[in-house]
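Hi everyone, sorry if this is the wrong subforum. Our group has a chain we'd like a structural model of before ordering constructs, and none of us has done structure prediction before. Sequence below.
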Amino acid sequence: MTSVGDRGDQMPVTEQIRVHPLHDEPFLLRVESDPPGPPLAEWIEGNREWVLDQLHRHGSVLFRGFTVAGPDGFGQAARAFSPRLLDYLERAAPRTEVADKVFTSTEFAADQWIPFHHEMSYAHNWPSRLYFYCDVPPTRGGATPVASERTVYPRIPAEVRERFLRHGVRYVRNYGPDIDLPWQEVFQTTDRDEVAGYCRESQMDFEWIGDDALRTTSVRQAVSRHPATGETVWFNHAHIFHVSNLPAEVSAVLVEEFGLDGLPRNAYYGDGTPIEDEVAGLVRQLYRDAAVSFPWQRGDVLLVDNWLASHAREPFEGERRILVAMSDLHLERSAR
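Answer:
Right subforum, don't worry. Here is the predicted structure as tokens:
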């Protein structure tokens, strides 16, 4: 037997299974098997409580060398941890469902960075846990870095935290055939009444514009409290949706053509006051400074606690196919 962590919790270990933090840090635990390892779904099912404990301690867990039989096998491994996987509504990026509740990761151009974020922290509900599976590793780059909120949150200046805590974050999004995603893809329906019902239920203002465009406005939390550990974490999309996250030449063209209210997405303080560029930039930099990364190998599965760890995507070369599943829906009862 061997133990990891402070409480001495133990798991069955053979010479085939090794457990150690990545980069000698307490964040991102690696559980590695000599291939061909046991089926990951069966191994997780037999060690679920231990894995959950390690997830709360380390924020993310990488499984390597286990047997995962493609997208369906990945879905089985995720369901071994949480039986009910989630759909993906109120989308912020294009995705394709390749197996039951298993999606492609964000389908942005290969030469683009996807900044650090907590999945769906702009919404009124979000997944508690994320699962990533390397179906096809990239030729070069393409890592999925993670960053610990235990590192990032204390480094955000107190005056910045206090202002966001007072007001929350206001998100303005525009959907349509000519800008960003069409609302039909975002809400996975062609029925305007269904969209209206979703918006009302989630405390989101909405406005139909022209023939086929939609604008939504919502005020959400800036921080959130982990339901199991009790920790307070920075939990919002302000630094990503903020106009300063766009290249300067792109934002200039979009603002000139659509105006600030017509941008695909933008973020403000909850009272409608513009967020300063330097504040959004500071948060993005703090996440980059805290990044922990590893090169994907075929068959890798990364389990992420959506509160304790944010994630990103590096630019890449090659075919790269990383699949994603989500579980354990959390409903935020308050807009702040």
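For your construct planning: Residues 2-109+127-137+296-329 form one domain. The chain has two domains: 2-109+127-137+296-329, 152-286.
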